[in-house]
């Protein structure tokens, strides 16, 4: 019997999760100083999971102009190389 396409696990789905394991939740509680030793690991309070997104760094205009001017001034590799016959 074949598996339906909607039930297959994709590569991207494993990277972003919104549910933590019990050990991860206890680790987050320790970071927030809400965990006391000797406490039962059952019935843990909710822990917020922050989604992190990488932001693109903006280049200053002075560096961007110098970078484009430097590449335009240098000859390209294809123009400098002699053609083979």
Topology:
Layout: H1 22-31, H2 61-73, H3 77-80
Give a nutshell description of this structure.
By secondary structure, the protein is an all-alpha fold. It contains 3 helices and no strands.
Q: How would you sum up this structure, described in words?
A:
The protein has helices at residues 22-31, 61-73, 77-80. The longest helix is centred in the last third of the chain and has 13 residues, at 61-73. The chain has 85 residues and is mainly α. The N and C termini lie far apart (58 Å). It has three helices and no strands. Helix content is 32%, strand content 0%.
Features:
mainly alpha, single chain, 3 helices
- Compute the average pLDDT: 75
Task: Pick out the low-confidence regions.
Answer: none
Total strand segments: 0
Alpha plus pi helix count: 3
Distance between the termini: 58 Å
Structural shape: flat
Helix share, percent: 25-40%
Give the H and E element order: HHH
Structural class: mainly alpha
Largest sheet: none
> Whole-number radius of gyration?
27 Å
């Amino acid at each position: 019997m074949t598996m339906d396409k909607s039930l297959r696990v994709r590569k991207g789905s494993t990277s972003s999760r919104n549910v933590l394991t019990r050990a991860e939740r206890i680790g987050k509680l320790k970071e927030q100083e809400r965990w006391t030793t000797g406490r039962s690991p059952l019935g843990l309070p909710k822990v917020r999971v922050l989604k992190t997104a990488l932001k693109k760094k903006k280049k200053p205009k002075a560096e961007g102009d110098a970078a484009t001017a430097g590449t335009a001034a240098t000859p390209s590799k294809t123009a400098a190389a002699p053609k083979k016959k």
